[in-house]
């Protein structure tokens, strides 16, 4: 299959496109990301860096490249699904992302809580496409690359090696 023959390039391209889309949405369309959105960018940055480093050291077919990418993808998938659950009011988010203040008798404590609050609430859907939020779309993208990466690893390193 052609997807497996060029998998590292496809993985790199998907990561680059995801980051470019997020940065364009943020800077050109003034869609400020919440803390969970920012965490979901980390795996894409990591994959881009990993691919570049492995490519520079001529180890682009190394098992470590795919395993490190897999770890980054799992990290992103965790935050994307969690964020999706927060948006759907199924899961609760971190305190720094909720916009909820705890009751207190101290003005200093209240001031500290206000200063530490997120400007953008993680449960608010800033934008959506065909009813799908950015977190949902990101979950699907990460699930797709996780699945293909898993198949690639098993086919090339645990099964019979095939030349694509």
Could you please describe the fold and organization of this structure?
The protein is mainly alpha-helical and 164 residues long. It has a single domain (2-156), classed as Bromodomain-like, CATH 1.20.1550. The chain has helices spanning 2-5, 7-27, 35-56, 63-87, 95-98, 107-116, 134-158, and strands at residues 128-129, 132-133. The chain has a two-stranded antiparallel sheet. Strand 1 (128-129) and strand 2 (132-133) form a beta hairpin. Helix 3 (35-56) runs antiparallel to helix 4 (63-87). The longest helix is centred in the middle third of the chain and has 25 residues, at 63-87. The model has no long low-confidence stretch (mean pLDDT 85).
Summary tags:
elongated, Bromodomain-like, 7 helices, mainly alpha, 164 residues
Main sheet specs: 2 strands, antiparallel
- The assigned structural class equals mainly alpha
Trace the largest sheet across and list its strands: 1-2
* CATH class category: Mainly Alpha
Overall tally of domains? 1
Radius of gyration: 19 Å
Q: How much β-strand is present in the residues?
A: under 5%
Extended strand count = 2
Q: Note the overall shape.
A: elongated
């Amino acid at each position: 299959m052609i997807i497996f023959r060029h998998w590292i390039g496809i993985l790199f391209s998907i990561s680059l496109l995801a980051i470019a889309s997020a940065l364009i949405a943020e800077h050109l369309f003034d869609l400020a990301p919440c803390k969970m959105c920012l965490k979901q960018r980390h795996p894409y940055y990591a994959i881009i860096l990993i691919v570049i480093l492995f490519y520079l050291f001529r180890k682009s077919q190394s098992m470590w490249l795919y395993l490190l990418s897999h770890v980054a993808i799992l990290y992103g998938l965790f935050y994307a699904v969690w964020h999706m659950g927060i948006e759907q009011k199924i899961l609760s988010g971190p305190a720094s992302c909720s916009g909820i203040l705890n009751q207190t008798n101290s003005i200093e404590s209240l001031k500290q809580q206000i200063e530490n609050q997120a400007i953008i609430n993680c449960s608010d859907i800033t934008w959506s496409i065909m009813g799908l939020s950015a977190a949902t779309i990101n979950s699907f993208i990460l699930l797709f690359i996780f699945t293909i990466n898993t198949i690639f690893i098993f086919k090339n390193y645990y099964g019979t090696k095939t030349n694509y």
